[in-house]
Design goal:
The structure holds 2 protein chains of 2 kinds.
Chain A: H1 2-6, H2 32-62, H3 78-110, H4 116-138, H5 156-186, H6 194-209, H7 211-225, H8 234-245, H9 247-262, H10 264-268, E1 272-274, H11 275-288, H12 305-317, H13 319-339, H14 357-380, H15 382-388, H16 393-398, H17 401-422, H18 429-455, H19 475-505, E2 520-522, H20 536-558
Parallel strand pairs in A: 1-2
Chain B: H1 5-31, E1 58-63, E2 66-74, E3 77-79, E4 82-85, E5 89-96, E6 102-106, E7 112-115, E8 121-127, E9 132-136, E10 149-154
Parallel strand pairs in B: 2-5, 4-10
Antiparallel strand pairs in B: 1-2, 2-3, 5-8, 6-7, 6-9, 9-10
Classes of the chains: A mainly alpha, B alpha+beta.
Chain lengths: 571, 155
């Protein structure tokens, strides 16, 4: 290759210096305009949580037989509120935060600005999507929950709004890919800076994963809701949804992993153990996240049991990179605790900076995620799935994953990110600490109740306060759920005290604080096999092959779809 | 690339654990006969009430000790809403929907299956003890979803 010849002579055995990242103490500042757009993405994401929280509380109380829906002006039914809760938390919050946060990490890692038109486009398409979804849901024309299974038919603005949310992630992806491509042009032969690599890997996975949702919404549901297509094929629609619907959980999770790998080590005074292992973990998510969707459809008719089992095996494979993550993060924490004077087998734990709400929130999120990982393996086990499918066990599980591992981590990130974006000191550090503990205790009690009732068959997504059936076995768990859910609501409220306090009353800082970025014990090498980790075409090709194996036979057997189910609006 | 010896041990134990779990699942499926719902035929969702066997939902004894339950799950009831069978019966459920997606979970059994318009869901279960089981619709199917339930009475 001519590029290697043209480059200045370097000792290939020496670790690559990641220019502009950790070795540059002056940091890199984005323009005011770009910083503001990123800040508003973060605000929009948390605003979604603030609205969604109210119905979350109503749902938790409903499991204890308490109906507070009459206190919600504007809401007509439980399921309308449940749609608000799911759409805002699972789609708007996570998408807005990922768009803002990973744009920032990419720009900072590459020390170059982003494309302002793509940044504007991503933000405003998200806003437009929220407005359309809000109109459809609040006018009670779209109480279809965030899974919007056909043939329940929502107003067309719901589908257009959902499509615009996905478009905003695609515009962000385009921005990240463009920045990385430009950096490569200026730095031929260099290894990608790790923080840019993991950010781009997250979006590369999601771009491939979101194709199912795009085909479903733009290809079928939108024209169907406008009357251009008469019928739908509910099984094909469900399959397209879950093609995107499982990998989306990693699109939620990976921004949290970016923080755990690249920021938490610096925040606790440790280091990230291994650059190549970190890249491998994110590549594994790119490869194995998508060919797993049938494990959400284990109990569906019309899908061959063999294909379900194949997706089950893939789901176990995707557990492996999270195991590797558990080790790497724990090692960073231990390094930090020992550097701060911790001695003995466990003496490093109390030495961690527990007074830093950003660290405490994220460590509690990690610990809660251990519960979520274990319950997730149970969901993926095809025999046990028949006991827990569509019971409250499932929301019990995912409130410890996306509801805590992701949401509480994003709040922990906000405790340094919002001061960075606003040039204001964090307001109410003690309130922030209390927030993290109260939310964690709350979610553990909540998940205890939901899981127990789920094992006794209580259905999820059901207005229990008005259901005519209520076995005794669900009573006590229902109280746990209500108490835990109430504590979670207190935790979220305290978060907003800190967030709004920082924005409006935080002490102004002279200098913008920098992002905490970890140093690496084993950095990237130009030598040997490692550079193949940076070869996107190789990994994308493997990902596509796995998808074709996992979905190809089913897609061929379902073609063309039987569009003979008429629409229903039963809300 | 250096991988620390502890990390190698941790990942080997973790990976080995996943393989053991998969082995247990293979045994549950191939050895203990716990199966997931498979393809069981399709149906025109607009002609459910005129397509056998769904033109005549109910409970039928198909062989000594073996029963078939033909059921229509619709917004917002199960037809039949009550299934009576003697203890020790092996029961095959055949279910479909003429409207939206429903789900059926027979409390304290492994009967847990989605009911998707256009598809026929099939599940088999042996009810050993005399008792009542709730039949619950566990997929959101509209404003009356929480009113949709039934009973299996094992006598």
């Amino acid at each position: 290759m001519s590029t290697t010849v043209a480059r200045p002579a370097v000792d290939v055995a020496a670790p690559v210096v990641q220019r502009g990242v950790v070795d540059d103490p002056s940091g890199f500042e984005l323009s005011r305009e770009q910083t503001a757009l990123i800040r508003w993405n973060i605000y929009l994401g948390f605003a979604a949580v603030g609205v969604a929280m109210f119905h979350g509380l109503a749902q938790a109380l409903s499991y204890a037989g308490i109906n507070v829906l009459g206190w919600f002006p504007g809401l007509q039914t439980y399921y309308q509120g449940l749609t608000v809760h799911g759409v805002l938390n699972a789609l708007v919050f996570t998408f807005a935060f990922a768009n803002g946060f990973l744009s920032l990490t990419t720009a900072r890692a590459l020390s170059r600005p982003l494309n302002r038109w793509l940044l504007h486009g991503a933000f405003w398409s998200l806003v437009a999507g929220v407005v359309l979804l809000g109109y459809a849901i609040l006018s009670n024309q779209a109480s279809v929950l965030f899974t919007f299974y056909a043939p329940l038919q929502a107003h067309w603005t719901f589908y257009l709004g959902a499509a615009l949310l996905v478009v905003s992630t695609w515009l962000t992806a385009a921005n990240l890919f463009l920045a990385l491509g430009r950096w490569r042009r200026d730095n031929p032969g260099e290894r990608y800076p790790l923080m840019a690599f993991v950010s781009v890997a997250t979006y590369a996975m999601w771009v491939i994963a979101s194709i199912g949702l795009a085909v479903q919404v733009v290809g079928y549901l939108l024209p169907w809701s406008l009357g251009l297509i008469e019928g739908s094929d509910p099984l094909t629609m469900r399959t397209l949804f879950w093609y995107s619907g499982h990998p989306v959980v990693y699109f939620w999770l990976l921004p949290a992993y970016v923080s755990w790998y690249l920021m938490i080590p610096r925040q606790v005074g440790g280091k990230l153990l291994s650059d190549p292992l970190t890249r491998m973990v994110f590549i594994m998510f790119l490869l194995f996240s998508i060919p797993t969707g049938f494990h959400h459809q284990y109990t569906d008719p019309g899908i061959p049991a063999f294909m379900k089992a194949l997706h089950g095996v893939m789901t176990f494979a995707i557990f492996f990179p999270s195991l590797a993550t558990a080790f790497a993060i724990m090692a960073s924490l231990e390094m930090g605790g020992r550097a701060r004077g911790g001695r003995g087998l466990l003496g490093w734990i109390p030495k961690l900076p527990w007074g830093d709400p950003s660290v405490t929130a994220q460590i509690l999120a990690m610990l809660t995620f251990m519960v979520g990982g274990a319950t997730g393996l149970i969901n993926a086990s095809l025999s046990m799935n028949r006991v827990i499918h569509n019971t409250t066990w499932v929301p019990g599980h995912f409130h410890t994953t996306v509801g805590t591992a992701v949401a509480l981590t994003f709040m922990g990130i906000a405790y340094w990110l919002v001061p960075m974006l606003t040039k204001r000191e964090l307001f109410g550090r003690r309130i922030a600490l209390a927030q993290a503990w109260i939310y964690t205790v709350g979610v553990l009690i909540f998940a205890r109740g939901m899981s127990a009732a789920g094992l006794d068959g209580q259905p999820r997504r059901t207005f229990m306060a008005e259901a005519p059936y209520m076995p005794d076995a669900w009573l006590v768990p229902g109280y746990w759920t209500a108490v835990g859910g109430s504590l979670m609501a207190v935790g979220i409220t305290l978060f907003f005290v800190v967030l709004l306090g920082t924005i409006f009353f935080g002490r102004r800082l002279e200098k913008r604080p920098d992002m905490p970025i970890a140093e690496t014990v084993h950095p990237a090498s130009r030598k040997g096999w490692e550079p193949i980790l940076d070869r996107w075409p190789v990994w994308v090709a493997v990902a596509v092959i796995l998808i074709v194996i996992a979905y190809g036979p089913f897609v061929i057997s379902e073609m063309p779809p039987t569009l003979n189910t008429p629409p229903f609006r039963l809300f | 690339m250096k991988v620390h010896v502890y990390e190698k041990a941790f990942l080997s134990i973790g990976g080995g654990m996943l393989l053991v779990f998969l082995g247990a699942l293979a045994f549950a499926t191939l050895g203990a006969g716990i199966h997931l719902p498979d393809r069981a035929g399709s149906i025109d969702p607009q002609a459910v009430r005129t397509t056998p066997p769904f033109d005549d939902p109910g409970v039928r004894e198909i062989a000594p000790g073996k029963y078939e339950v033909v059921m229509v799950a619709q917004a917002w009831s199960f037809d039949p809403a009550e299934v009576r069978i003697p203890a020790g019966s092996e029961v095959t459920f055949r279910i479909t929907s003429p409207d939206v997606i429903h789900g059926i979970h027979v409390e304290h059994t492994t009967i847990n299956v989605m009911v998707v318009p256009g598809q026929i869901s099939e599940m088999r279960y042996t009810f050993r003890e005399p008792r009542e089981h709730l039949i619950i619709c566990h997929e959101y199917c509209g404003i009356g979803h929480h009113y949709m339930y039934g009973k299996v009475i094992v006598e």
